[in-house]
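Per-record layout

source: Streptomyces alboflavus
name: DUF1707 domain-containing protein
length: 190
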Amino acid sequence: MSEQRVSHRDRDFAVEILRVAAGDGRLTSEELDERVEAALAARTASDLAELTADLPLEGMPPQAREVVRIDQRFGDSKRAGRWLVPHRMEIRLLFTDLKLDFTEAVISYDTLHIALDLRIGGNLTLVTAPGIVVDADDITYTRGEIKIAPVTGPEVPVRLRVVLTGRSTGGDIVARPPRRTPSQWLRRKA
């Protein structure tokens, strides 16, 4: 086994494997407590491997990638539904509309860093949900607009902070809540 040092994320993943195994009845509560304590104190990959070697990985949620790169010219693109939110994204758009819909997304990290290069006609739309905050303070733009919908009250804890950096030389950035369906509009008017 590798003697590579483990990160907090590696420890958290091992703990999740242990919790799923306990939920399936593969570990007693005493074994779970003992192994979780050992996992949180683990320093190397081999330490964690010993704790999970006798457990299956089925039923575990897939792990999000560290970096996702989108480099597109012309057309439309979107991430919607139950997509895995990575830790970082590098997005370069030219005459392309990209929509990142976070309303059903699987969020593995507390921060998403997006490095942008929006050229003419390169537009980014972020569809947010309660608890998702967008920070566009580090965007340099010469043309185009940046429209960030205000965050709802302090009673909603922040689940994901989206930090935008980079530049826009002709594209728009919009962060907004999901659009209401016609039935939601009718219920609101009643």
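summary: The two ends are 64 Å apart (CA to CA). The beta strands are 67-79, 84-85, 88-101, 106-107, 111-118, 123-127, 132-143, 146-148, 160-169, 173-176.
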